[in-house]
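Protein: Transcriptional regulator
Species: Rhizobium jaguaris
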Amino acid sequence: MAFRPLLPTTVRWRPLEGDGLEHLTIGPIDVATGAAIRACGTIIGGRDGSPYGVFYHIDCTADWSVLSFTIETTDGRRLALLSDGKGHWHTEDGIALPQFDGCVDIDLYGSPFTNSLPIHRLELTPEAGTAKLSMLYVPFDSFVPVRDGQRYTCITPEKLYRYAAEDRAFTVELPVDADGLVIDYPIYFKRVDI
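Structure follows.
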């Protein structure tokens, strides 16, 4: 099973509590880096009373493996990392980051979009069971990436997936649209009509 071919599209999510918005534009690209998909987004929101504004760019292969990402705050903090698409990361200066070996996907705090990356890439079916993943997770308060264990299970192909933290302390079911993009992230985010 596979989602429909990706066309240029724009979607937005808003948090269910507090103020904020994520605005995403995603579509196919053809560049010399080997990337086939580019996601560009802006997230405004707050955490523990601290407001933030973040811009991000994520480039992926045609099978949705992350090749690079750049995130930058409105106050000038920046993080940019590159991957071979197989979970081997390095900085822009070429410094290897072996602590993230095996992390094919990334997870950005406050972004329902990044949950779509493993859902799309894995093409899970209910018969496949649960996929156990290590994610390169970036919190917006520190911008210091960490390794984070996550689990994904297909409930209904191309429609509904279960996300669980590795320790299973948090579990949520994520509906997706025909593009494989998360529609709603129950208790946290809801898609906004544009």
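Remarks: The CA atoms of residues 19 and 37 lie 29 Å apart.
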